Fold this sequence. Notes:
Elements: H1 7-37, H2 44-73, H3 80-113, H4 118-121, H5 124-150, H6 167-171, H7 180-212, H8 217-246, H9 255-259, H10 262-265, H11 267-278, H12 281-301
Helix pairs in contact: 1-2, 1-11, 1-12, 2-3, 2-11, 3-5, 3-7, 3-8, 5-7, 7-8, 8-11
Amino acid sequence: MGFSDSLQDQIIHGILFLLVYLAALTGNLLIIVLTTLDVHLQTPMYFFLRNLSFLDFCYISVTVPKSIVNSFTHNTFISFFECALQVFFFMDLASTETAILTVMSYDRYVAICRPLHYEVIMNQGACVKMMTISWLSGAISGFLHVTSTFSLPFCGSYTIHHFFCDIPQLLSLLDSKVIISEIRVMVFITSLVIICFVSITVSYVYIFSTILRIPSKVGRSKTFSTCIPHLVVVTLFLVSGSIAYVKPISDSPSFSDLLLPVFYTVVPPTLNPIIYSLRNKDMKAALRRQLAKGNWVRDSYS
């Protein structure tokens, strides 16, 4: 159904989503390129950030482009197969993002609380294993949601009051007597999300307690600056997603019900490049080095 039946409103939504989408793609691609090319950014922290940026590049591409096309063409139809694919990739990437954010909190914990052991604990093999597990867990989550939801018979209206195929809205189209399998999957996945959230919370309790013991005010400020951006993303993503999945689904959703998913589908992929690049001295220095290298190459051929 999108956000509105008005053609003018649909065009406005399409333009806004297009601008946000282009900003998210540009920012995440910039991080991927810089963390790949710059030798100074070949550390575990930027390895995880590169994975997060690639994930966000894919994550926002699952829902927003289809919504943009629907807004400009005034056609909100989506096929059963396309809806199933959208659910799979959305749940896959959302679960993977939760896992990666958890891994990044652990990386910050080791870097700040156990700096002398950082290189040993966060070695290349360990980092690759953690990323492999994160991506694999997301794929399993997506597969479980799709198989448990789309194997059940839909009944009544096939109208989804949303701008993409999301599990809570799909459950409202199913007979309440047959959705027990999907509810079990949601309980299982929710339990894993709670475990991730608790792990992140514990990591930051140790991190902040360590930071507060730093005697230098400059040192405390510098350390806080590396943690706060990650904490902002985690809070925004997990809290908004949890509220959307826990609250009851209304038969006639309000605008706020439609707006809430934007905070866990559109905002994090757009916000990540801003808080990790514009506030990060290493990223800005890497960008200057790459621009200077590009100018040097161009001058050498002129």
